[in-house]
């Protein structure tokens, strides 16, 4: 379940990257510094944050609070 939910964070980052390139409303276009993308989560959100950081190296900072770590995250670490 956690990897599935972590895909939402990756999808959000992908959408932000697309809007940074071409925002139909012009609000975010060229304004985002995605080289410094960060994510944070508490409890279940923390587990999702850790998994998202393990899966997606574009997340440069990860704040994981009050969470049980999955075996994959413990074994592989964050990217």
TrEMBL record:
Domain of life according to the entry: Bacteria
InterPro entries, per the entry: AB_hydrolase_fold
Pfam families: PAF-AH_p_II (PF03403)
Protein name: Uncharacterized protein
Protein source organism: Limnochorda pilosa
